[in-house]
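Risk register update: the risk of archive-format incompatibility is retired. Evidence:
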Amino acid sequence: MRLAVFLLSAAIIALPAAAQEKPTLSAEAQALLARIDARSGDIAEVAGALWDYAEVGYKEEKSSGLLKDRLRAEGFSIEEGVAGIPTAFVASFGSGGPVIAILAEFDALPGINQDRQASRAPIDGKGAGHACGHNLFGAGSLGAAIAVKEWLAQTKTPGTIRLYGTPAEEGGSGKVYMVREGLFKDVDFAIHWHASDENSAEAETTLANRSAK
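Archived output:
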């Protein structure tokens, strides 16, 4: 997850140098990585809490609340209940452009659960779990948004960083309603990541779910 947080935040602050053919890890990027490392314990704590909450789509009250509390403490302004979804939110810091969006998912899957250990250890009576790693998704995106916010504040660079709390990815089409509401209209670009069994960075398009009832 450390790499995912770094790639998300470093990609944003490196935009002015995007034309370089062979970018290197600048002193600024190294400082960013150091800030991420300094917060690694806090981000891991959030990931663990989201794992324990394991709330299914549109019912992520504790998960959404935890992310919003952490963002408020870092100086983000929060727009809650967007698109008519109680657990959806948009957290913003900065002003002007470019407007950069980082997506954060945090919903769990029904019918499967697991204790915090590598071997199979289901929890009796618990009806949902993070089989798709959205606890890492939400926590990693939180860490990246905070790192970029600190960079904006320190360097006095114009721009806005937003964390979009996007509920119900697992079959609930939460983002569709947020797009319909026009919440992404002024966004210059959005960054998304996902937990996997390998570390990689790719620029590609996918066929997203574009409709919902």
